């Protein structure tokens, strides 16, 4: 997002719209899958409005359909613990006033966190967080309603490669931070730990385990001269 | 936004159970979001720890991107998705427009699947 400095507002809206379109499509697939697995329309829509966490929503729908609602809650919450450190990193970004912080916290997602942290600190970062967070909240919920209404006629988002769009978008947003050597070492170590433990740990834990990547900062300086 | 796989059809659960599940997920998730924001204000964190917070967030997001790229339901996600993400990563490395990174990644994966690559 190098052009962000040249034409801040225009590129901000364009970048938010790019992910927004993908989110609308995946939201539609969530609505369609929720209804297809036996959830009433109101439940799918309520989940998107008040939970607003895609991964946990898909997981919860699958587990409810499998007949284990209690597990759906625990697994969904385990998946969302990562928002706690996001809040620590974003507190000053979201808003100075408490009323705005209560609202702004609900807009916190992986994408809005990465998008905001990719901007330099200050009013630009705050604007990026709110534009992205509220735009993607609208896209996700509009998508859910469309999916509920269209049902099975919503195509599989994997067919359009949307499952590749989200990680690619996240990486693009992280790129400025990853150019800093310390952050890059921590992030790559954390990502490797998460990928290696994904087959053996319950969903949610591998990503949290990435925090252990911070330990590389404690290693003696000589050991830092790694290939990456 | 991980886990896009469809689920089998089963009977609709009790509305009371559904309301309880959705409320518990909503309250818990919101609490995680808010507690971080709240803690940061109340704890007078030392400067070095404050500087580590964005690094910690980057590590979590990188781990999320990596697992969402390579895995699906705890197993390998296939070839099409990682190759698409790799194309996006290459473009992002050379500072391509954000739109181009996302569209190229999705298009590559979609074309590979169209060609029969899993």
From TrEMBL, chain A:
Membrane topology term reads:
Multi-pass membrane protein
Q: What is a single cellular component term in the Gene Ontology annotation?
A: plasma membrane
Q: Which residues cross the membrane?
A: 21-52, 58-79, 129-154, 160-178, 190-219
Keywords, ordered alphabetically: Cell membrane, Membrane, Transmembrane, Transmembrane helix, Transport
InterPro entries for this protein:
Brnchd-chn_aa_trnsp_permease
Q: Which Pfam families match?
A: AzlC
Q: Where in the cell is it found?
A: Cell membrane
One of its GO biological process terms is: L-valine transmembrane transport
Assigned protein family: Belongs to the AzlC family.
Q: What is this protein called?
A: 4-azaleucine resistance transporter AzlC
**Species of provenance:** Micromonospora polyrhachis
